[in-house]
Amino acid sequence: AITEIDLDPLPGEPEIAHFGANDLAYLSDCSNGRIFAVQGQGGSVLTPTGANFTAPQAMQGTAAPRLYDFDQDFLTVTYYLKVVDAGDGRTTGALIRRVNGNSEEMVRGVERLDFRYGVINASGETVFLSADQIDKGVDAGGSSIPCPPDVPLPGGMPTAGCLWRAVNTIEVHMLLDGQTPLYTLTPNELAYAYTIDGAFAPRAPSTHAIKPSDQGFPDQLLRREFVTLVSLRNYNP
Predict the structure, then answer these.
(1) Dihedral angle sign, alpha carbons of residues 231, 162, 116, 73
(2) Smallest Cα–Cα separation from 146: which of 119, 122, 172?
(3) Quick one: three-class SS letters along the chain?
(4) Distance, CA of 185 to CA of 136 (rounded, Å)
């Protein structure tokens, strides 16, 4: 296990900026990566605190590992939904994009946003799971899923969260509405499908797991689900 990290660049190497208070460390050799908490920020010696799944291990192989300040060097992009004022006393959903803490509104009329992750299990089959299921290493029925045998865990990397390394596709589901209520719509025109809820055929707004009224939106809107499947390179850290 790594017990100490000395920030001492060799002649000709770029200087390493001192870590900020409470910043995390990220050790990577471009194939594997470890994120862990350290103490000693602001000085030339960092000490892992042990506040991780397991103690960080020294990486082995031909690639030279590199240390990063995870909070400053890592670009984090987050997408989430927010209820915003649509005018005339109404509200609507908006898709927000946040980059390292700075948020901007992308588009309005987005009511639902869900992700499912395609994971290759030990049998070579692709199963789609939620993020919580991948963290826990279980399938939709709660049964344990072992780490795929051909997903390498070099350098003593822990098996906790190993299914993230077996994600090869991400399925994105988005429910959009027309924003302008149409009070002349018939019940059949109000019906919509949202497969995350198990609604593969159009059904009434009040029958969905998350109803528009739960979010403060009127039922009298045209709604449609959009789905896309994004492929990833297999077995990334």
Answers:
(1) negative
(2) 122
(3) CCCCEECCCCCCCCCCCCCCCCCEEEEECCCCEEEEEEECCCCCEEEECCCCCCCCCCCCCCCCCEEEEHHHHCCCEEEEEEEEEEECCEEEEEEEEEECCEEEEEEECEEEEEEEEEEECCCCCEEEECHHHHHHCECCCCCECCCCCCCCCHHHCCCCCHHHHHEEEEEEEEEEECCCCCCCCCHHHHCEEEHHHCEEEEECHHHCCCCHHHHCCCCCCCEEEEEEEEECCCCCC
(4) 43
CA-to-CA dists, residue 199 to 3, 184, 192, 205, 210, angstroms: 52, 24, 8, 11, 12
How many other β-carbons are positioned within 10 Å of the β-carbon of residue 210? 14
The one-letter amino acid code at 24 reads L
Instruction: Fill in the amino acid letter for 6.
Output: D
Distant-in-sequence, close-in-space partners of 174: CB < 8 Å, separation ≥ 6: 110, 112, 113, 114, 225, 226, 227
Per-residue pLDDT of the chain (237 residues; tens, 9 = 90+): 888 998 887 788 766 666 888 889 999 887 778 889 999 988 889 999 987 766 788 877 667 788 888 888 888 899 999 999 988 888 999 999 999 889 999 999 999 999 999 988 777 788 999 999 998 889 888 888 887 765 555 555 556 677 887 888 999 999 999 999 999 999 999 999 999 999 999 999 999 999 999 999 999 999 999 999 999 865 544
